[in-house]
Design goal:
Layout: E1 11-20, E2 23-33, E3 38-42, H1 49-56, E4 64-69, E5 72-73, H2 79-82, E6 85-88, H3 100-110, H4 117-124, H5 140-153, E7 158-162, H6 170-185, E8 189-193, E9 204-207
Parallel strand pairs: 3-8, 3-9, 6-7, 7-8
Antiparallel strand pairs: 1-2, 1-4, 4-5
GO molecular function, one term: transmembrane transporter activity
Keywords: ATP-binding, Cytochrome c-type biogenesis, Membrane, Nucleotide-binding, Translocase, Transport
Protein name: Heme exporter protein A
């Protein structure tokens, strides 16, 4: 499948920390990702993988540290940077009354993606036969495939994926791996949180257990 040109660049995190409800979740997260790189976030439940992805997506402000694109600091709410990101959360962010194709067309228009990328993304996730089915009638795995197709159809350079393989059967896991490889080959960057193995060649790993925040001082504990 032909890929649109990606706005290739480097993504760096320097000393990122995060609070959830005033509770420190992680601290001191550092990485530097070049075009084509992949970073897998590991760690037990509650260690902060989803929180880190939300910080990277600009959905949660960091409590400490900065993010850089091509060496330039990214300000919170930076619209140009938002355009470089495609975020897949636990929820699939699909409209149940629209068909699979209509959902992708909606997202493609919103993100300025090429309309011909919609059918290509449906093909890549083997969804062509379900293109005209309302999303409310799809199975969990079919919905997850469509949510991944939404990322594939986007023009974003940086894919931020939270448990992308959830609900996928073996064939769909294979298609996900192929989509990730194609994105990286086109100069894209992948950051994925996963408990399952993802077939990501030469991916780097970031273990959230190495970024546990320092314990609160006794006087700060109510
Ligand atoms: N909206 C929220 N408000 C307050 N605390 C939250 C909120 N969301 C998550 N947390 C807390 O932040 C911590 C990190 O959660 P997070 O979802 O980032 O972990 P995770 O590593 O992705 O977990 P999992 O493997 O279960 O998906 C947990 O202690 C969780 O209870």
């Amino acid at each position: 499948m032909a890929r649109h040109a990606l706005p290739a660049g480097t993504l760096e995190a320097d000393g990122l920390g995060c609070l959830r409800g005033d509770v420190p979740v992680f601290a001191g997260v550092r990485f530097a990702l070049e075009p084509g790189d992949a970073l897998v976030l590991r760690g037990p439940n509650g260690s902060g993988k989803s929180s880190l992805l939300r910080v990277l997506a600009g959905l949660l402000p960091p409590a400490a540290g900065r993010l850089f694109w091509n060496g330039e600091a990214i300000d919170p709410g930076d619209e140009a940077h938002r355009g470089r990101l495609a975020y897949l959360g636990h929820a699939d962010a699909l409209k149940p009354v629209l068909t699979a194709r209509e959902n992708l067309a909606f997202w493609a228009k919103l993100h300025g993606a090429a309309p011909d990328g919609v059918d290509a993304a449906l093909d890549r996730l083997d969804l062509r036969e379900l293109a005209d089915t309302p999303v409310g009638l799809l199975s969990a795995g079919q919905r997850r495939r469509l949510a991944i197709a939404r990322i594939v159809a986007s023009p974003a350079a940086v894919w931020l994926l939270d448990e992308p393989g959830v609900s996928l059967d073996a064939a769909a896991v294979h298609r996900l791996a192929a989509a990730l490889a194609a994105h990286r080959a086109a100069g894209g960057i992948v950051v994925a949180a996963t408990h399952q193995p993802l077939d990501l060649a030469a991916a780097r790993e970031l273990d959230m257990r190495n970024h546990e925040p320092a314990p609160l001082p006794p006087e700060a504990i109510p």
